[in-house]
Amino acid sequence: MRTDDNMSQNVRDFLEGPAASLAFPRTALVDQRVSSDYLELLRQPRPAVDNSLVCPVGTLRELQISEHVRVRVYVPEGSGPWPTLIYYHGGGWVTGDLDMHDLTCRLLASRSQLVVVNVDYRLAP
Q: Which residue has the higher pLDDT, 52 or 63?
């Protein structure tokens, strides 16, 4: 099993390697009213759910890759090696975080026998 430092470096190498050449949009045109309504909806209190009870995984790690990028790594139960899925949450660089997509990533890891790397990145101001 890799140490957190090795895993951090591997994810950093991937993000700075061939994936860095992918053309991601730098801006998104979003209607301000729709955007603010959606953000307000996200701020509403939701019932607390312990995702670790709903869908357990073998190992869960959070790593700080850079100043603005964190990842949460979900490793399924059992013995690998497993393929890896890099999961970038949606939200148009405006909304979304690691917690919002935690259950989805847990389900992917446990039911598909994948290591899932959930990327949390800096959102637009």
A: 63
